[in-house]
Amino acid sequence: MSISENLRYYKDQLPEEVRLIAVSKTKPVTTIMEAYHAGQRVFGENKAQDMADKYGQLPSDIQWHFIGHLQTNKVKLIAPFVKLVHAVDSLRLLKEINKQAHNNNRVIDCLLQFHIAEEDTKFGLNMEEATDILSDKEFKNLTNVSITGVMGMATLTEDEHQISREFEQLHQIFAQLKNTFFMEQPSFCEISMGMSDDYKIALVKGSTMIRIGTGIFGARNYS
Ligand SMILES: *Cc1c(COP(=O)(O)O)cnc(C)c1O
Fold first, then answer.
1. Which of 167, 151, 150 is nearest to 201 (CA)?
2. From 26, 195, 214, mutation site for ligand 1 pocket: most ligand atoms within 8 A of C-beta
3. Residue 25 Cα, ligand 1 centroid: separation in angstroms?
4. Is the pTM of this model over 0.90?
5. Which of 105, 116, 119, 219 makes a 20 to 30 Å CA pair with 166?
6. Which whole number is the average pLDDT over 190-201?
């Protein structure tokens, strides 16, 4: 299957309000251009330097989503252009994004990443840590970041019931945060969940953004 056929395959399954993030990490700009010519405009990367390099070489109407763990010292590389940071998991990182966004005269949209998987290797917040961030006096002064939702990754398992429970948990976290902190903010509306192997379950559980890499571009080559 070609990249454009793969994109069509996913697009056909998505409700109108759900966005497809094409995860292009490790893929060269020529491959990204294939997807671009097929109409794809939203791409996800997980390395700041790679994303900045690709941004410089590719059309300016691409929306760049940063999907991985972002180190504070790398924020400045992507602050001039990044559309959405999917995986904010500390106040320290949020403050740095705010600072760099301010330097670039922008407001940067961010999602809070939650730890919903069983594996403890994955990054992410629990409810208590998120509540601490959102209640912090300093948070209110961060006028150059906008929290637009939540993100999470399910456990890598064949057990669909488990994946389903974990995505359900993320949906409940989203609803609780909305009620507690974002009642007046319609912009808090995103649930980023679902990858090539589990996106169907994520859609059932109310995902608004699925992040698909291998399903569109084929296996990654980490040489
Ligand atoms: C790599 C990656 C994806 C895409 O994974 P695939 O299994 O290739 O679809 C999605 N989200 C994050 C955070 C990733 O790092």
1. 167
2. 195
3. 9
4. yes
5. 219
6. 98
